Amino acid sequence: MSEAAVPKIRIRGLSKRFGDKLVLDGIDLDVMPRTSMVVIGGSGSGKSVLLKCILGLIEPDTGSIEIDGTNVLALDRAAREAVRAQIGMLFQNGALFDSLPVWENVAFGLLARRMVSRGEAKARAVAVMAQVGLAASVGDLWPAELSGGMQKRVGLARAIAAEPAVLFFDEPTTGLDPIMGAVIDGLIVDCVKNLGSTAIAITHDMASARRIGDRAAMLFHGRIVWQGAALELMESGNAMVDQFTHGRREGPIQMELRK
Amino acid sequence: MIALLDVVARIGRGLLGACEASGKLAMFALAGVGHVFRPPFYGRMFLRALLEIGFLSLPVVALTAVFTGMVLALQSSTGLSRFSADSAVASLVVLSVTRELGPVLAGLMVAGRVGAAMAAEIGTMRVTDQIDALTTLSTNPMKYLVAPRLLAGVIALPLLVLVADILGVLGGFIIGVVKLGFNPGIYLNNTVDFVRNDDVVSGLVKAAVFGFLISLMGCFHGYNSKGGAQGVGAATTSAVVAASVLILAFDYVLTELFFAR
How many helices (H) and strands (E) does chain A have? Predict the structure, then answer.
């Protein structure tokens, strides 16, 4: 097998149960190096749990998660920390630290790993903020003073500041107007391309999915029910994907509504 | 018979739940204390917590101490005069303030002010994914959020209580001299002659324990909060109530340890 054919992230048989509810049911997923995988699916389908399992924030019940061929679930705490240091994450609501100014949010990972002095960290933060279209003056503001779009940009800057090999995006365009959504998608694509990172994004936004993703997968009831090229999302030929992407009420996916 | 079994089952479930919660709290406390001694250390977070718990609580603790000393002098004067023992006012005030009222009242005031703020801040960080974000940025949340607050609580409360002791005695002195007509020199002599190192030190040790309990409850309830704004509100209430009750319970236990003969 050539190096290019070895997945950067390889997930096999991943399952997670919360009480009686089986949230992930034997997930198999490969993400190739320097590509972007978009995971779509309805609310409660397990998308966020999948990301949190890969990040190590939730411990799965069974299965394996390999990053660069190493099963991270079998690693000790220190080794897992080292793997996690290669991953950047943009959270759905930004998850910015509201007790710190913007520049410290952006440089937090650099300072936490004692990679640079505070002066160097600030200079680096300003440079990364420029990459996502934020002026240096924004660095001295507080997260609460920013609009939703600016908070996403700061979250993106924080995610890429340490130049991670893997990037995760949790609903990157949720809560943004369509133009700002397109701007954030463009920034994500540029960042992933410039860093040469491998990315996984989860989203409900079909336009965003096609802009960000090279590949796409659909999660339903904890299982991957379809995988293919992101550009094929709207004409996948899969009844579930078609119903979801076109937002149809009728189809194989039945919403559980009580009348 | 079925109703009786139902009652027994409920009691059993309650006991199991209490055991689980106690175990969870103990594990949390052990992990927090462990991180106080293991690097990396977050000096800025510690100084911030020290400022919040100590310096910013000074006004409320000072006011509480002064008024408590004043009331104590008034009340003890009226009570002791029945036995013609008015001269014991100064010694009663200094003993009560240093051994008991200084640490307990300062602890309760700080629990209300700081315990609630801690639970609300950490709880909000939990429900807005900020704690998960810390983990993804190579930062252990227990080390970054909990350990500095535990250490700051243990250091700040004794300092606050030292101030409360002085101001409580001052409050008693003011009432003793201005209202009850004591000679200032004799009042101060009675105070200094009667108080022993043990009295002050026992109060400061109590304060250190109370500081730990306040920080622990604030951090524990905030860290484990869930369910959005309502969950954060519930965590805040639980932190203050639990810290207040624990302060009173540990006050009894420590008093037994120090003074029971």
Answer: 9, 10
Option in A52, A85, A93 nearest B138 (CB) = A85
- The neighbour count for residue A18, using CB atoms within 10 Å, is 11
Q: Does B132 sit within 8 Å of A84, measured CB to CB? A: no
Q: Where are the alpha helices (DSSP H) in chain B?
A: 2-37, 43-53, 58-81, 89-95, 102-110, 116-127, 130-136, 141, 147-174, 184-194, 197-223, 228-259
**Average pLDDT taken over every residue of chain A:** 89
For the record, the structure tokens of A202 come out as 């989860």
- DSSP code of residue B98: I
Domain ranges of chain B: 42-259
Enter the ipTM. Answer: 0.88
List strand residue ranges (DSSP E) for chain A, in order. 9-18, 21-31, 36-40, 62-67, 70-71, 87-90, 166-170, 198-203, 215-220, 223-229
The DSSP code for B84 is: T
Give the nearest partner residue to A84 out of B40, B130, B136, using CB atoms.
B136
Selection from B149, B105, B103, B109 nearest residue B125 by Cα: B149
Q: Is the pTM of this model over 0.95?
A: no
In angstroms, how far is CA B21 from the centroid of its own chain? 21
What residues contact B69, with CB distance under 8 A and at least 6 apart? B93, B97, B167, B168, B169, B170, B171, B172, B173, B174, B175
Is B136 in contact with A112 (Cβ distance < 8 A)? no
Query: In which order are the strands placed within the sheet that holds A21-31?
Result: A21-31, A9-18, A62-67, A70-71
pLDDT of residue A38: 94
Report strand pairing: A87-90 vs A166-170: parallel
Token code pair at residue A142: 């507080």
Listing DSSP states for B51-75 in one string gives: HHHTGGGHHHHHHHHHHHHHHHHHH
